[in-house]
Amino acid sequence: MAEDRRKERLDRGIKVRTDGIYALMSKRELAYLTLPRLVLIVGMLILPLVLPSMYWQRVISIVCLYALLALSFDFLAHFVGLVSLGGAFFIGVGGYLAAILNTTFGLPPLLTIPVATVLGATICTLLLFPCLPLRGVYFAIVTLMYPLVMGRIIEALDILGGTDGIMGVESFANPWVEQYFVISMVLVFLFGVRRLVNLDIGLVLRAVMDNDQAVRASGMSITRYKAVAVWVASCMGCLAGACLVHIYMWAGISLFALDFSILPIAATVIGGGGTLVGPVLGCFILVPISELLRAFGTLRIAFYAIILVAFIVLRSEGLMVYGRRKYHQFERWVQV
Amino acid sequence: MSRQPILEVQDVTKAFGGILALNRVSFEVHEGEILGIIGPNGSGKTTLINCITGFIKMTSGRVFFRGKDITGKAAHKIADMGVTRTFQIMRPYYSLPAYKNLVIPLFSPRAKRTGGWRGGGKLGDRNTVGIDILEEIGFERDSFVPYKIASTLPTGYLKRLELARCLALRPEIIMCDEVFSGLSMSEIASMVPLIERLQMDGITVIMIEHRLRELFQVTNRVMVLNFGEKLMEGTPEEVMTDGKVQEAYFGSQKVEEVMTYA
Known about the structure:
Order of helices and strands of chain A: HHHHHHEHHHHEHHHH
Strand content of chain B: 15-25%
CATH topology of the largest domain in chain B: Rossmann fold
CATH class of chain A: Mainly Alpha
Number of strands of chain B: 10
Shape of chain A: globular
Number of domains of chain A: 1
CATH topology of chain A: ABC transporter involved in vitamin B12 uptake, BtuC
Number of helices of chain A: 14
Order of helices and strands of chain B: EEEHEEHEHHHHHEHEHEEHHH
Largest sheet of chain B: 6 strands, mixed
Number of domains of chain B: 2
Structural class of chain A: mainly alpha
Largest interface: A-B, 21 and 34 residues
Strand content of chain A: under 5%
Radius of gyration of chain B: 19 Å
Radius of gyration of chain A: 21 Å
CATH architecture of chain A: Orthogonal Bundle
Helix content of chain A: over 70%
CATH class of the largest domain in chain B: Alpha Beta
Strand order of the largest sheet of chain B: 6-7-8-3-9-10
Helix content of chain B: 25-40%
Oligomer: heterodimer
């Protein structure tokens, strides 16, 4: 038994290369780096073409919206240190804005989505601004209050359509436009956020997470950088909300439902926090599983919970963290 | 001394509930000077720095930097004016390599204005400037040390990194909170010339220190705190021979007696 065990750690040399500065030496190494990215991009782009029915294509649209939320959660939690349970708040603000812009002002989806994204993110950031000095679990619990409060206010004051919601929102021109729009948005934000966290401003955001006192001692306002990060994150959330409203052609209080806050966290745990692509992958696993389990009727949630627990117990580091480690060992794997 | 002091602290008082951590502490520092602050544990040294740099709000008192009132300003605004501090418990960005630790202060508005330490007003690539600063502060450029993740660096380098973070802002004042503590004798010996270099570069230094021998090598004016009150101020010789100071450190016994037990 002892003879076929290695004496050397596999990941040492590769860790040095991937964590620091490295140069591409050959076409093989170029392929080594680009292959996973290409698989992701091509895979997502052909997904609508290979799916059997309209029903599953619609599921993919919803998956992508959750993926945007999960991205926004992962970015805030693992690159800025703010654990936000405000996913539903972002969805609600973006969704209602898009619905109002479309039904009251008659703007087409082509305009409502970008306007709702930018304006919604600004509104979310302004409303969350008083909470920014909070950290950890305190920030989490306060952000959880926001969607609950918004839903109750709309219900109690009977504004914005009250419990009926806003009906008659224009849909996307056709399902293909809808599919490819949300898929390309996920890809754009995925690679955009990856780029952002490695820029100098991204380092400052990570520094706020690591050690906010040292950032203050360096002459920078931590509240300001947290606000920038929350704005970026709520952009993704509001974009998802605006798309959701145009997909369902309706905006209602259920936009503030807690699913939008909780599922992205489950997806992040399953996919691997801090990897950005992991949470996206997590959504591509969790949401379809939830749809498949509809066959079990009321037992659906029980099975869903079991699957979730199994993932967390058996792969607690997250699929992408595990997968990335194995991939970096792969080169040596074949030689051993 | 007819010049205006670079930092003027007037009657700073800080109460934490019932505890009076600082009681009407006043002092002045002139440009280019190195002032030592000593005192037994719990005498309010770190609290004094926290109050001056805006990390905690003082109960009463005034602080003037170059004649401008900076009392009660936000910590990042005070740092932006050039009044910087190190932390006694080092606060690097543990997940980042050493040189990336300096990208963060170099990203600040002050570094953009001043160009970083010796930047001449124009800030180049932050990674390169960061490695330049690290080299000046004792990280060997051609070794792997500047590229190591901060959590894997030994204490000596982390203390230097604390100083480097201040230097990246091109500061006017650096307040060092026990930069010698936890270091070996040889590490301290290599830090002392560094502090002297800061002075030659025209930076005013305030040093909180327990290592009196090394402190007295670099400074000729020392302030003593005890139970939040300023006990005295003077040259190292005056401080060492003062009866009140000896009592604060060693109790009522005579220094000679303590030394014979040691």
